[in-house]
Fold:
Amino acid sequence: MTKSITSAVNSIVTKFSRRNALLWLGGSGLGTALVAGTQKEVIAQGNRDRDVQLVNPPTLYNAPQNGYSHIAITPPRTKTVYISGQFGSDLRGNLISNDYEAQLVQAFRNLRFALNAVGARPQDVAKTTVLIVNHTEEKLIPLGREIANLWGNTPPANTLIPVPRLALDGMLFEIDAYAVIPESPNNGWY
Structure:
């Protein structure tokens, strides 16, 4: 059966130019997908036993340039960690500033603290949700900078939701995250 799938895929591939065709064979040999387009790299991370695979098909626009990936695939034998919305707070839960950018930077710092607390790395994050009060495109500049600082060129899947307000008066930014880490009794937190 694998031979017939490979044959069918190869006949499709020949219909595309080499420059615009990418064939991705799943590591287990059970799944095969063909993606055509102009982006050269579709899968951002490759250690399928440990890392979240971030997929940006060339048939969709180049999402990483805007600070997120289209698809995140979690590896087998992992535990999902759900991190609640982090915002620009100090240890007592007070806002550190009335400034959007200061709150955003602190929220990312708090997200890093939460990831560290469960033994997760930034590349273990599969999906984030960002909430911005009175969103404008100008607010994307510091957001993009913080995303690049944490994830470089391989940001996780993300949804940005403009909102009129958040839980506390004066709160301007919030980010939650879903991360996956290998199940291990050595993690020490469960």
